[in-house]
Amino acid sequence: MPFITYPYQDEGILWLMKQIEKGEDGLWKKSRDMGITFNTLQAIAYRCQFRENESYVVMSGKEAMVEKSDSPNTLFWKLDFILEKQPVWLRGRWKRVKLHYSFPETGSTIDGESTTEDVGRSGRPTMIFFDEFAMIQNSQSVFAATTSATYCRIFVSTPRGTATGFYAAEHVKGINKRYSGWWLHPEKKKGLYKSENGQLVIEDKAHKFPDDYPFILDGKLRSPAYDKAEARSLSKAEMAQEWDMNDGGAGYQFFDTAVLENQKTQFGLPPITVGELTKDKDFRPDEFKHNERGLLKLWCNLIEGKRPPKSEYVIGVDVAAGTGASNSCISIANTLTAEKIGEYVNSRITATELAELAFALGLWFSNEHNQEAHIIWESNGHGRTFGSRLLDLNYGNIYYRKYDDSETIDARMSKYPGWHSTKDSKNILLGEYNRALKMEEYVNRSIPAIEECGEYIAQADGSIVHTGSVNSIDPTGAKDAHGDRVIADALTWWIMREQRTFATKREREENKIPASCFYNRRKEYEEAENEEKAWVRSGI
């Protein structure tokens, strides 16, 4: 009986053939039980039977997953099945020993290996196939060892979260990607439906649902097969992993996926203004130059295109070395509206230059009394250089850390400038920021910044880390993420949080709210906004 492939499998096999012919890396991300591993092995067997002098290496995390006697889950069992079930006149001759196939008529070979750090160093195969690459623990070393071993590596896997080599490989620009979700499978997509704004949308018009079918209107793409699998699953993470191809939902993601999606869809916007802020010889703001390729992105309208409106601002800074290995980030937030309104990201700016830019931005984003923005930065590492330069410039409105290591609001102010990162203080910082996003107390307009939140994970030791520090397959240097935007954003909320709580504490102590506190400033802003809307409605 012939093996009849589905259309998405036909397209995938042709894509795979092109990757081999071109000698280029490829990544094939899939839902569970899509037949992709089998299709890849079919392509390898075909080429060994009908192409001369090609060599292939098939790999999994353990040798037992490559070949184990009478186990249909292993790669070599599948190869045996593919070859032995062909007609004699078609399959030709081959020789088979443990972890090795040779085809005398073509001179081609297939070898099986487990993924050790020395994998692929002994030869230069036509292609290396990594099955379920997200399961491999030493993925960084394996990725590095095979970069020079072959021109064509094929990474196939179902997601296992953002702290995996497969997730990192997916974000390498030089790797061609292909995706095969369950909704492409003819059997699983029968009765495909979804919901938009709480309203049912039937995608598969030909499917007949029972009158009492319990549709689930949560915005996700669904089908009866999906609903049945979800009802039998242990957790949302299982469905995210096995069906949805959702890296964030598949791992121990720290920031709630639904919260991030809400922030992105409800508040995320392209920047209103993009450009560069020039400085004079004293590093004071000189001129804003509009430039679509500029690094300063703003979600506010500039007055006459020259300067931001007067308001209360806070600036958060995450400082990197400036060597291209990670981004330095400046986040600017309006404390009256509790929203992020500016972002600067650069992997090639030194800590000293970053301090000079922050100095200019702080003066540019001033309040109605011309007081500069409140600046807070992570003081660890290169943050020391940043802080020293900012102090040399006599910048007046900066954050001083607390004597209490927990960074609680009630702790006394110290003489040490900047926010100091420890495991505990970082957990508190990100925990407060996570809560603010969930409660919509903080509005983040930057879509890349929101997406970076999804790359933070909670580890078994209780620490919260960015996936870039867990697996470091990142040959692009800074790419777009090492969590730098997130730290800068969270620091802006840290200041707003303190101001808000300080006002509440003052209210308890004096039974009144001072006119200059965060609460009254925001209330005054909202009243003015409502009054303006009332004027518009009345036609005045």
What does this structure look like?
This protein is α/β, with parallel strands linked by helices and 540 residues long. It has three domains: 8-181, 3-Layer(aba) Sandwich (Rossmann fold); 193-250, no CATH class; 273-509, Nucleotidyltransferase, domain 5 (2-Layer Sandwich), CATH 3.30.420. The protein is 36% helix and 19% strand. The chain contains 18 helices and 21 strands. It has helices at 7-22, 36-50, 63-66, 75-84, 88-91, 139-147, 165-170, 224-232, 236-244, 247-250, 257-266, 351-364, 383-392, 423-438, 447-453, 467-470, 484-510, 518-538; strands spanning 26-30, 55-60, 95-97, 100-103, 108-114, 127-131, 153-157, 176-180, 193-196, 199-202, 273-279, 285-290, 296-298, 313-318, 328-334, 339-346, 374-377, 400-402, 413-417, 456-458, 464-466. The strands form five sheets. An eight-stranded mixed beta sheet has the order 3-4-5-2-6-7-1-8. Strands 12-11-13-16-15-14-17 form a seven-stranded mixed beta sheet. α12 packs across α13 (383-392), α14 crosses α17 (484-510) and α15 (447-453) crosses α17 (484-510). Residues 405-409, 474-481, 501-519 and 535-540 have low confidence and may be disordered.
